[in-house]
Amino acid sequence: MGGSVQSGDRGRRALAEINVTPLVDVMLVLLIISMIAAPMLERGINLNLPTAETAGELPDVFIQISLDRDGRIWVNNKRVHDNSFQERMRVYAGRNPDEIVYIRADASLPYGEVLGLMDHVRKAGLTNISLVTELIDESAEGG
Q1: Residue 71 carries which DSSP code?
Q2: Which end of the chain is more exposed for a tag (fewer CB within 10 A), N or C?
Q3: CB atoms closer than 10 angstroms to residue 34
């Protein structure tokens, strides 16, 4: 009662190769998606900073506030709504009231908007405020 092997089956072997074509197709689709999505994730805040001859390099900052040309507030490159901005500044002031706050504001904004932002920061208890500018490129101006 045992199984018998016919002579025709002796020459056959199981096909053990893997078809990699579907795997390559999936990998190419994932590569294309990541190439399209990566620039969207790296999108920064669109600011046209004012220029100054004495602008210097920023140290590794702890609190960096950006005010874009549409008046939106960003804290450490994350969008913050106006109603929660004051509370967030109070939290930072509670941690370290002597921390330097770097404000980056678009050059096209009215002076009053930047001053209002500085006033909110001061009311929260942070009084060490610096304004960020870009260095003037003298080679571009021919000087």
Answers
A1: -
A2: N
A3: 10
Q: How would you list the strands of the sheet with 78-80, edge to edge?
A: 78-80, 73-75, 63-67, 101-105, 129-131
Decide if 40 is inside a domain.
no
Residue 61 structural domain? 51-141
CB of 135 within 8 A of CB of 51?
yes
Q: What is the pLDDT along the chain (143 residues), one digit of tens a residue?
A: 555 555 555 666 666 778 888 889 999 999 998 888 876 665 667 766 777 777 666 666 678 999 988 889 999 888 998 888 989 999 999 998 888 899 999 989 998 999 999 999 999 999 999 888 887 776 655 54
Which CATH number goes with the domain that contains 92?
3.30.420.270
The DSSP H or E segment spanning 142 is none
Domain count, the chain: 1
User: Tokens in use for 4?
Assistant: 């018998």
pTM listed for this prediction = 0.60
What count of other Cβ atoms lies within 10 Å of the Cβ of residue 103?
A: 17
